[in-house]
Structures are given as structure tokens and as C-alpha cells.
Specification:
β8 and β9 form a beta hairpin. The protein is 36% helix and 23% strand. The longest helix is centred in the middle third of the chain and has 16 residues. The relative contact order is 0.17. It has 10 helices and 12 strands. The chain folds into 2 domains: 171 residues, no CATH class; 73 residues, no CATH class. Strands 2-3-4-5 form a 4-stranded antiparallel sheet. The protein has a 3-stranded antiparallel sheet with strand order 1-7-6. The protein has a 3-stranded antiparallel sheet with strand order 8-9-10. It is of the alpha+beta class and 264 residues long.
Length: 264
């Protein structure tokens, strides 16, 4: 649940209007992943995270000076510092684990890191775009990010039937897929080509050039495959959060990304 109040609200009145104390739960340090990472033919899904500190904040903030980094690169840098281990593997021993995680699993770890750092509630200061009043917004990290456990096995690929009756197997994109596509695609069509070529899984029938395979697919089949990857992917919903300004009651939209949740 999201709560807002203006900076001018008197503390005594706030106490009267909300007599029940808000308990910010002890930091969560364990996150169960949906798929996890495959190491030694075993899917590792139990992870341990830690609270972020000032050293982490400085290191992550310094990345903003690097021009070629994309969103997934920032997330990778944050998770390499926040995640202690996945399964029996220490992050310090295998930092590439965060690149191999599904985007949904990375989002789960990110929210877990926020809980470990701030507790259940995350208070943010947001200015109203209409009246410019300062609002203190309290996010409930356990309720404001909708997450339903997938009803299917994330360790197994999706199977999509094409118009000619053939079956294409797809895995959901990982952090490394997202970074590669963001840096190499110039438009949406190229994004689709690169993502399909990276996410398609093959046996002995793998094409010699998977990008050419993705390019020569019919538009109808390409759209069907892209929809399979992008329609309700597993993981928490990192979307806009809508509330009201406590002064003018105008709509107040909060963009939920790693920057606002970590530093605001």
C-alpha cells in the first residue's frame, strides 16, 4: 500500500491519524529464485543477499559517468555487490552468475536488496508536477510490486508452434541478453532479431547462422515468438506506481526503477 503526506504535516497530527506504529521488518537476506542459474547440471535457486552500504552507493553512482552503459549494466553492477551467494556458489567466485539470471530473477534480487537495505517500507521524497508540493511517499516493498509465482517450470523452454507446424523452443531473456540487445540493436526490428537469435534453443538442428534464421522468419511467426517472450514474463512487475498529491490531490506518478528506489 502507498501512503503520502506533505512535509508540512505536523508530527502530532500524523501520530493521531495513524496511531498504529509502522513496523519496518528485519532485513530479508534470502530470496528464492524462479529459475536461478545452472551450475554442474543443477539449477541453483536459493540466494543470499546483504544490505547495501555507502561504499556500494558510491561505486554504483560512479557508473553514471560511463556513456556506453545501459540499464542492465547498472543492474548487473548492483547485484554483483548485493548478492552474496546463489546456491553453494559465492558471488565473489563466479560473478558471471548475475548475467545468466532471467530478467525476472534479477528483479526479484533487486527488490530483495531494497528490503535488506531499507526494510519492508521504502520512504521517498517526490515533488508534485502540478503544485510542486513535496510529498513523502511510503512504498510497501512486499505489496506494491505485484508478483505471482509462475505456474510453469522456468527451467524448461517455451514451445511455440510456427505456421508450418514446426516447434521453436525459447528461453526467457537473461541479463546478458538484455545488455547485448540494448547495445547492438538500432531499432525494434533489430531488437527482435537479436533477442530471438539469442533466446532460441536448439539441438542438433541448430542453424549455422541463427541471426539469419531470425531474419528469414515470416513476420507473423516472428511476432508470435516475440509475444511469447514479452507477454507476462515471470517476475515482479516493475511499473509506474500511481498515488495522489496530499496537497492538491492531483495524480502523482512514480517511476519504479533502480535509480529512484536506491537513491531517492
Amino acid at each position: 500500500m502507498i501512503e503520502t503526506n506533505t512535509a508540512s504535516i505536523d508530527a502530532a497530527n500524523e501520530a493521531l491519524s495513524d496511531p498504529a506504529p509502522r513496523i519496518n521488518n528485519a532485513p530479508v537476506t534470502e530470496v528464492l529464485l524462479m529459475r536461478g542459474v545452472l551450475r554442474d547440471n543443477q539449477w541453483l535457486q536459493e540466494s543470499v543477499i546483504r544490505e547495501l552500504n555507502g561504499e556500494d552507493e558510491e561505486a554504483i553512482a560512479s557508473l553514471t559517468s560511463k556513456n556506453e552503459l545501459v540499464y542492465s549494466d547498472y543492474m548487473t553492477a548492483l547485484l554483483k555487490r548485493a548478492v552474496v551467494s546463489i546456491g553453494n556458489v559465492q558471488m565473489s567466485d563466479d560473478p558471471t552468475m548475475v548475467d545468466d539470471l532471467l530478467i525476472g530473477d534479477r528483479d526479484l534480487l533487486f527488490i530483495g536488496a531494497m528490503k535488506a537495505t531499507y526494510g519492508r517500507f521504502r520512504e521517498m521524497e517526490v515533488a508534485c508536477g502540478n503544485c510542486n508540493a513535496t510529498n513523502f511517499v511510503t512504498l510497501n516493498l512486499e505489496e506494491d510490486f505485484k508478483f505471482e509465482k509462475p505456474t510453469f517450470d522456468c527451467t524448461k523452454p517455451l514451445e511455440v508452434e510456427l505456421r508450418n507446424g514446426s516447434i521453436v523452443k525459447l528461453r526467457y531473456p537473461t541479463g546478458s541478453d538484455s545488455s547485448y540487445v540494448a547495445k547492438n540493436a538500432k531499432n525494434n526490428a533489430e531488437q527482435n532479431t537479436l533477442m530471438l537469435s539469442r533466446c532460441a534453443e536448439w539441438g542438433d538442428d541448430k542453424p549455422a547462422d541463427v541471426q539469419k534464421w531470425a531474419k528469414t522468419l515470416g513476420v507473423s511467426d516472428r511476432n508470435k515468438l516475440v509475444r511469447a517472450l514479452t507477454t507476462n514474463p515471470p517476475g515482479p512487475k516493475m511499473e509506474e506506481v500511481k498515488t495522489q498529491c496530499a496537497k492538491c490531490e492531483d495524480d502523482l506518478l512514480i517511476l519504479m526503477d533502480w535509480v529512484s528506489l536506491l537513491f531517492s
